[in-house]
Amino acid sequence: MSKLSTDPDRRGHFGPYGGMYVPETLMFPLEELTREYFRARRDPAFRKQLLYYLREYVGRPTPLYFAERMTQELGTARFYLKREDLCHTGAHKINNSMGQVLLARRMGKERIIAETGAGQHGVATATAAAMFGMECVIYMGEMDMQRQALNVFRMQSLGATVVGVTAGQRTLKEAISEAMRDWVTNVRHTHYVLGSALGAHPYPLMVRDFQSVIGREARRQILKKEGRLPTHLIACVGGGSNAIGLFHPFLNDREVKMIGVEAGGFGPKSGLHAARFATRNGGKVGILQGTKTFVLQDRDGQIKLTHSVSAGLDYAAVGPEHSLLRDMGRAEYTYVNDTDAVFGFDRLCQLEGILPALETAHAFAYVFRNARRFGKDDLVVMNLSGRGDKDVQQVAAWKAEQATKSRKAG
Amino acid sequence: MTRIDEKFRTLKAHGHKGFVAYICVGDPGLDETVDTVLRLEEQGADIVELGVPFSDPLADGRVNQEATARALAAGMSMPGVFRCIEAIRKQSQVPLLLFTYANPIYAYGFDRAVKSAASAGADGFLLLDLPVEEADEFAGLLKRRALNNVTLVAPTSTEERIERIARAATGFLYCVSREGVTGAQESLSPSAARLLKKARQATDLPMALGFGISTPDQARAAARHADAIVVGSAIVAKFHECGNSPEGRRRAARWTGKMIRAVKEPV
Question: What is the pLDDT of residues B24-42, one digit of tens each?
Fold first, then answer.
């Protein structure tokens, strides 16, 4: 069988998706970044430096933990958790932030900007910037600032300026637009650390490369522990960086099934969700924030409002490589609604003593609700992409609201 | 030959500079947009750029973002844009350029959008986030319908890119006067003159300079370097500030007229 490849062409096309759909003012910084990134990618000194900080500062490799009670309780497959929640700052996001901040230093940029949804990417970027003594500005939707107040405080403590974005629905999408506007204006001395496998080339490729450390480690670890490849990989998908980081190194292990779990919000039928791949009421191919991919939009091409209990999955488009994986049939995408996500959050806490991020909880909810889809011989690797300390207030408020609703209904 | 081509030919024959006014279609409504265009023409605007509202206008500053949001909230849509053009064409032959982002046009269908625009009476398109490398199909469709493909160069564009973009352009070349998004600025950027000089070497097309022009003095200064200037945010802000009434629009148009006359004064 021929080798599968999802590597983009010179202008960042993943099959019919991806590309560089940006205003001309952004072309120069993107081309400069592409050039520098490809140089760094080939440079052993850069790779060595990144590896050093990932090991000594981030705490890699992260464990691949055998989830004993979860395995017992579900009584089907054997479940392993890739513990990205144990990375410094509590999520996989720092793999990418560290890589991009090192790249920015190499390019001689003095100022770092980033967008953030749940705040994990903002915290990771502010952390890397603080460590290297660089100026850092984080754009965050005001709605997300409210629901992720803890992370706002963390970013500020790390010396970053957090700028609230009031446009549109005041979440991740608007924060990305605002960060891009800053970049266009200050491009000569600023690097924009985009946090997911989204946006214009080279970001989807670069972020995937930096996150692929997850899958490379997991592959090595599972072979060592079980002597065979997993049957399934499961991860949540917002922009899709933790999922592509886990999936990509297994691309040519065709017997390994890949499942991406999107945010179903109140359910696709309600129109309040972020399930771009849902067959009913899902997305269609469009162009948003620099890339061609599946986008939630109305008939006129206006971007739809999205909803998810988790700020990190609350986005109208999906990374272009996921659109290609879906077309190829190499990965399968499904969704989990808010209620189930909170159930997944609780269940993992109780079974394994691990508090997952609400984003991550979507992937777990899928498994808890669909345990019977797995067989005795199945071996499942799940990406535990982040820890949930940031979400406890949000979950508490959500539960209080549900309790009020059910009292009223009763 | 489109109305835009003819306009630049006439301007050149008379030794005049052109004034391009940008407004957002449907801000605050369709009828108001028609009225605004007619008033701007009356004040001497040579070309009107009609912004087709898109929910996520990446290259726009706050003023145009808010105008877009108002237009969408009022229900503006692609069919609405074409109805608006038809209504303008009943009363005016002012050149009309559609200025927007790729997604609303892509969603409507490139072919269908170009066809509808041509039959409604538009003269060309400028799609901000459809770079020249991705634009072959769209440019071909425009050519087939005899519409202009106006493209944009920025101070950060390399000479190689300027050449390629200028080659693809018809009607005129839009030169962005500074790094950043749309929006009025206090002073005119020095990078503008450099960009125009580079662009001159790449094409004989007329050149319009835009982004950040907000006063008659700036307009006059900018016009010295270019064949035309584009004013957007400042006009959008003025019309909004003057209020949604015929009297408000009359005042805003007269205010714009001062800038237009500054451009038309003999140097």
Answer: 999 999 999 999 999 999 9
Neighbouring residues of B125: CB distance < 8 A, sequence distance ≥ 6: B97, B98, B99, B100, B105, B114, B117, B138, B142, B147, B148, B149, B150
CA angle A166, A338, A215 (to 5 degrees): 90
C-alpha–C-alpha distance, residues A33 and A104, integer Å? 9
How many CB atoms are located within 10 Å of the residue A93 CB? 33
Contact at CB, A287 and B153, closer than 8 angstroms: no
Q: Where are the domains of chain B?
A: 3-264
Nearest to A289 among B58, B156, B157 (CB): B58
Residue A40 to residue A36: CA distance in whole angstroms: 6
Q: Does B69 touch chain A (CB under 8 A)?
A: yes
> What are the residues facing A383 on neighbouring strands?
A82
Out of B65, B78, B181, whose CB is closest to A167? B65
Residue type, A316: A
Which residue is listed with tokens 């691949």?
A: A64
Give the CA distances from residue A186 to residues A56, A112, B61, in Å, rounded to whole numbers and listed in that order. Answer: 32, 10, 14
Task: Give the tokens for residue B237.
Answer: 């802000």
* Superfamily name with CATH number, domain B3-264: Aldolase class I (3.20.20.70)
Taken as a whole, chain A contains a residue count of: 410
Q: What is the pLDDT of residue B183?
A: 64
Helices (H), A132-171: 142-147, 149-157
pLDDT, tens digit, 9 for 90 and up, residues A251-298? 999 999 999 999 999 999 999 999 999 999 999 999 999 999 999 999
Q: Which residues contact B134 (CB under 8 A, 6 or more apart)?
A: A19, A20, A21
Subunit contact B108:A300, Cβ cutoff 8 A: yes
Beta bridge partners of A78: A379
Contacts of B7 (CB under 8 A, 6+ apart): B18, B46, B47, B95
Average pLDDT estimate for B144-154: 97
SS3 A71: helix
- CA A28 to chain B, closest CA, distance in angstroms equals 6
**At B185, which amino acid appears?**
Q
| Complex-level ipTM | 0.94
Which tokens go with B261?
């006359």
Q: Check A82, A93, A173, A292 and give the catalytic one.
A: A93
Q: With contact defined as beta carbons under 8 Å apart, do A210 and B206 qualify?
A: no
CA of residue A327 relative to chain centroid, distance: 20
